[in-house]
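Extended Data, panel c. Modelled sequence:
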Amino acid sequence: MDTERHSSPRHAVAILSRGDAAARRETTAQNSRFVRVFEALAAAGIEARPVIYDEGVADAVRDRLLAADGVLVWVDPIHQGKTRAHLDDLLRDVAAQGPWVSAHPDVIVKMGVKDVLYRTRHLGWGADTHRYEDAGAFRTEFPSRLRAGGPRVLKQNRGNGGQGVWKVEALPNTESVVRVLHAQRGSMPEDVPLEAFIARGEAYFGWGGCIIDQMFQPRLPDGMIRCYMSGSKVAGFGQQRIKALIPPPPEGPDSPEAQPGPRIMHGPDAPQFGALRRSMENEWTPGMMEILEIDEASLPVIWDADFLYGPKDATGADTYVLCEINASSCFAIPEEAPAAIARTVDRRLRLAQAAHAG
C-alpha cells in the first residue's frame, strides 16, 4: 500500500453506498466492505467517512455530501427494484455546488451503459454490435438479424447482475420460436414465441432508452477478464470462469457445477495480460475518451472493463471483446487497487483545489 504522507491540508471525502437503517447506524470505516479503501485514503492523508444512502434519507445524505471535498460512489444501477434515478439527480446537485463526485452521473451515462459497446464498436475491443433505438426498430430489425448471423446477446442499456441480458438463438425449422437464456444466476433456457420475447424486451426502452445487440462469443466458456482501471491507468485484473449465458448442466442451475468459478485477482503487471494492458492504456481508453468526450480528470477513480475472449489472431494470440463497462459500483477489487484509488483521489482533489484557488 502507498503509505506516503502529505503535508497539505487534510481533505475529507465521503464514500457513498446504499443501505438500510441498520447500515446507517452501524457502518464505520473499520467494518465497511470498503475498509481497504478507507485505509489507503488515510495513508495518503485523506480523511474518508462512510455515508449510507436510501431515497428516504436523501436530504440528510445531501447535507453530508456537501460537507465533503469529494464523493466516491458505490451504488448499483438496479438494487431490489430501486434504480439510481433519484440518487443521480442528488449527485448532480451536489457536484454543481462544489464537491467533486466520482463517478459523476453524467460520466456513467456515457461510459457505464451498454450503449458504449455500440458507440465504440470500431475500436479494437469491438465486435458485431447494433443498437435498437425504440421498440419499433427492435421489432422490425431483430428477427432478420437473428436468422442471418447466429446467436445474439441482447442487453438493456442500464443494469447489473445479468438483469436484462439475454442470449437468443434461432431454432431449426421454425422462425416463430426462439431459445432464450437470461444471464441472471439460476436461469434456465426457454423456448418461446419470438413475438412474445420481443414484447417482453420492449420494457427495456423505459429507463434504459435502448437495447444493444452483440454477436454471441463462442469462447465464453473460456472465461472473462475484468480489467480494473483507476482513471486512465490499469489497477489490476480479475480472471473468472463465468456461467452466465451458458446452459446449466443436468444437475440444474442451483447445483455446484452451475456456479461461476472464483475470480482470481492479479496486479496490473501480470505478464499474461501485458498486451491487454497496453491496448487499454495506449489505445482503447484514449479512443473511448475521444468518442465519448470524456477528459482524464472525469474518468471514475475505479471502473472496470469486462472482456470475453474473441477469436485468436493470425499469430495465435488472444483477442478481446468488450462486453460491458462497470462505472457505478466496481467492487470487489484487486489488492493493488485501493492504493491506486488513493493516488487518483489525491490528484483529483489537488486539481479541484487549484481550480477553486484560481
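The first strand starts at residue 11 and ends at 18. This feature is highlighted in the accompanying rendering.
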